[in-house]
Every structure is written in structure tokens, then in C-alpha cells.
Amino acid sequence: MGETSLDVQLKTLPNQPGVYQFFDSNDTILYVGKAKNLKKRVSSYFNKQHDYGKTKVLVKKIVSIKHIVVDTETDALLLENNLIKKYQPRYNVLLKDDKSYPWICIKKERFPRVFSTRRIIKDGSEYFGPYTSMKTVSTLLDLIRGLFQLRTCNYDLAQEKIDAEKYKVCLEYHLGNCKGPCEGLETEVAYHNNIASIREILKGNFKDSLHQFKAQMKRFAEEMQFEEAQKIKEKIEVLENYQAKSTIVNPKISNVDVFSIVSDESYGYVNFLQISYGSIIRSHTLEIKKKLQETDEALLQLAITELQQRFNSKSKEIFVPFKVDVSSDIKVTVPKLGDKKHILDLSLRNAKYYRMERFKQVKITDPDRHANRIMVQMKADLRLHEEPRHIECFDNSNIQGTNPVAACVVFKNGKPSKKDYRHFNIKTVEGPDDFASMEEVVYRRYKRLLDEEKPLPQLIIIDGGKGQLSSALKSLDALGLRGKIAIIGIAKRLEELFYPDDPIPLYLDKKSETLKIIQQLRNEAHRFGIEHHRNRRSKNALNTELETISGIGEKTVVELLKTFKSVKRVSNAKLDELEDVVGKHKANIIYNYYHNK
């Protein structure tokens, strides 16, 4: 198909809601999308510039377009979801974790069995779930078996077979775990009353069962059957204990699904909480890999459809952080305060924790993916033109002019590269002048890299505000590197970042990964600089007579030399002059040392 046919296809698209599919020259499906207006949405791919590389590549590959018109946007959402799952197109988001989950089955039989399964057979049996953890399933089944005596055998308990006395009661009957329907010792009606109670418990409704048990206990007590009453009392305690353990939100909030999302450059994490009778009966987080630059709205919408389908949710109301387009018979609530907001925040916290866990796992199992993700994130956060694979951070450690030194630390792929760290002794600057020192050090560092034809960093970080940044820029100008390397200054308040020619700082989110890396760079630069400074200072200062005075340490020596400039002046100082610098106690020690000599 030529270009004209693509033009013709675009012109003939309807202005209706629907689903579109893009195909390449091999007739392979590339992308599935939905739209309120097919013509507008599909045309937008071809009539505007795309900043994002993957979208550009996608558009270049499109040779033909197919579309399916549907009645409503909700239908489009469902159809899009099904097509993505069926064809898994290369450019569509990837919904992770396609594993099978356990369900609890109430089998369609005269005397139904209740058990866990991962296979759904459409034979009229009822399935509850799916559950995201087998532990929950085991706990529920233990609870049910503790409360109700159900059969575990798989006999066909047809009435005529029971009448023909085909079966005999087994050990479960003698242990009191089954009431023996196989010998006609329990009626179908009584058994089904228990099944009805189990059905309610699985839905999260404990109220009816508690009510029934309490009435039974009272009846046994009135009939003086205290042993039976005690057994029922124990069951009530088991049920109340289980109910207390399930997270209670607010008994008025029932049959609601809660969804929240956190995302970064490459992935979205959607948490789903299902609430029934005021309790959270399910929590599940879905990881979604972005293929293009999908918005949080688009990802959340897709995830809601997927999760409600997967977990067979019949809820008619959802709580979400922002408005989304879903089925018209579902009420969408965006909570602002109170219990509803609290539950949305809880969902968000679950999504954030899941994301953190995934990061930790990926760091261990796939360090390259971890580094790549951080680089993409830093590029976006710091508004850079390229990923900062190689970062250098400068710090001046000059303590009021004594032994001025500077440090340059290097990070590669978000990790310290210690072999590339460098120390500088300030050569050209007389006295304490941080700005001139920064200018000298930056010039020396990049003059050397240029002379030796070594790779330059993508990002330079200057520890200091606007003044330090301007000094560093002078050196980059002198070397002709301005604009070739990104450079930023970090102020005392770490989250303030200064850019050249921009008076207003950029503020980073305190919890962002980018800020953590910058913090690490600065801490390393401080540590490395101070270590070198100490070594130099020790060589110069610690050989002095002051060091030999008992009770006077390195810090005090540095303070004295900063103020008095020489040991001779310290020895001639008056007591009150010494007190001003090192306090009364140490001043007395020093004064007495020299005047009692």
C-alpha cells in the first residue's frame, strides 16, 4: 500500500467512538488504541510533530489502518483491552503478571463441596475470587471448615444412591467434621443453609453468620445443652477474630473498588483495593510497562478495565484520584476528604510500596535496567538534553584560608567511580576566596580532560549557589565548553537547583530518586574533600608545639592557627584573647603552658 492509500484511509475514517489498529508492511499489528472520535485521534498521529522517539518510529512503520466502530467509549475500552491481550502489539503498554490466581469454588452438587482451585469450569459452580495470595484462601477455607461441617468426599450423593445405602460414613463423620449426608443423616435443606452462610462470608458479610450463631448458642443454653452452646461460642470467637483481622475501613462503604496510580518514565503501578461490607477483601498491584509516553489517565483507565475483568468485580462504584472514562453504569468518585480519601491514600501507599520493592528487586536482579531507568528519570527531572551517564561534582573545602583544597567526584551510570575522583590544591588564589578557587579548579579539570582527549561529563554539579555557578561558568567559557556540558549549582538547601542565566531555582521533589543521587554526589564530594583537607592540614599544623600540649586536640589547633596565624602569636596571646577563640577551660591550659614554662 502506498502513501496515498494511507491518506485515503485517514480521510475516510468516521467521527465515531471506536478502536483503531495500526499495521506494518508485513501486516503485523503494531498498536491498538481507542478513541472518542476515530478520525481526530488517528489523524493526530500523522499531522503533528512527536517529541518522543518511539512515537516517531511507530508512525514511520504504519502502512495500513483498520478500525472498529462501537456504540460507546466504554465498549471501545473493553474491546481495546481484549485486542491488546490477544495480539500483544509491540507498541502497546504491557500488563505484567499474567499468572493464574486461586479461586474458592462452591461446586454445583446436591451437597456442594467447597475447595480452592486455579481452573474455572463453566458447569454452573460458583467461584469466589480470584485471591492474590494462597494464604488468604487457606485461612478462609480453615475458617469455613471450623464453622460448618461440610463433606470432603467426591461421591455422587443422588437421592436414589443414598436410599440404596450405597455409601457408608467415613472417619470425617466420626471426627465431627461432617454430618453424614451420604447416609441421609443430614438433609439437603440444612446443608444448603450452611452453604448460604458460607456464600455471605466469602463476600465479606460476617454479620448474618454471627447473628445465626448467637441465636443458636442462646437456644442451646436455654435447652441446657451447655456443651453444644460452648462449641457455638467458640465458633463465634473464631469468626469475630477473623473479622477483626480484615482491615475495616468504614462499614458504610461497601461494594466499592478503589484504584490509584504511581508512575515513572517507563512503568506505571496501579493498586486495586476491593471493599465489601466495610472491609478490604482484596489488594492487588499491577505493573504496566509503557511503550509510548502514556499518561497516568490512559494507564489507569486500561488497568481498571483489566482488573475488574480479571477479578470478576461487580462493584458499581469506584474511588479514583482523578476523573476517568469507564462504563456508564459505574459511579466514579474522586474523594477529597474523610474516610473515602483515607482509603484512596491507603491504595496509593500500597502502589508506592510495590514500586519501591520492584526497584529493590530490579537493582539486584537487573542492575542495568535499574541504571537505565535512573538515567532516563534524571534526564527528565533535570531538563537535560541527554542522559547524565557521567556526572562530576565539585566541592571547595577551605577552612578560612588554611590549606585551600577542592574535590571532584565522578559518578558513572548513577554509581561512584572512585578511581576517577580527583583532589586539587588551590595554587593561584591567595587567601580564602571560594569563587576564585572554584574558577581555578573547574578550569584545571577540563583543560586537562581536553588536552588528554578524555571523555567529558554530560553534567557538572557545583556545590554552592549562584556565585559558585558563575565562577565555574567563566572557566567553561574560557575553554569553549559553554553549552556543550550541562551545569547546575546546588544551594545549601539541597532541593534548590540553579541553572545558568535563570534567576529562579528549580525545586525537586524531596523523595525523588534524582535528588537522592545529587545528595549522594554532594556527600561524597564533602567526604572526599574534607579527608584531603585533613591530611594536608595535619602535615602543616600537627607538627607544631601546640599539638604537644596535653588536653589540646587537632580541632583546637586549627581554630587557634586560623585566628592567630602562628604558634608564636598564640604563645604571646592574652588569656581573654584565647578565651574568645577556644573557651575558658582550653584557654587556661594554653596560657598556663606558655607562662609556666
Key words describing this protein structure:
single chain; alpha+beta; eight-stranded mixed sheet; about 20% strand; UVR_dom_sf
Give a short synopsis of this structure.
The protein is of the alpha+beta class and 597 residues long. It is 45% helix and 19% strand.
Describe the protein.
The structure is a single chain. This protein has about 600 residues and is an alpha+beta fold. Helices cover about 45% and strands about 20% of the residues. The chain contains 20 helices and 20 strands. The chain has helices spanning about 5-10, 40-45, 55-60, 75-85, 135-145, 160-165, 170-175, 190-200, 205-220, 225-245, 295-310, 340-365, 365-380, 435-450, 465-480, 515-540, 555-565, 565-570, 575-580, 585-595, and strands at about 20-25, 30-35, 65-70, 95, 105, 115, 125-130, 255-265, 265-275, 280-290, 315-320, 330-335, 390-400, 400-410, 415, 420-425, 460-465, 485-490, 495-500, 500-505. Strands 13, 14, 15, 16, 17, 18, 19 and 20 form an eight-stranded mixed β-sheet that branches. It has a six-stranded mixed β-sheet with strand order 4-10-9-8-11-12. Strand 9 (about 265-275) and strand 10 (about 280-290) form a beta hairpin. The protein is flat and about 115 Å long. One of its GO terms (cellular component) is cytoplasm. The UvrABC repair system catalyzes the recognition and processing of DNA lesions. UvrC both incises the 5' and 3' sides of the lesion. The N-terminal half is responsible for the 3' incision and the C-terminal half is responsible for the 5' incision. This is UvrABC system protein C. Keywords: Cytoplasm, DNA damage, DNA excision, DNA repair, Excision nuclease, SOS response. Interacts with UvrB in an incision complex.
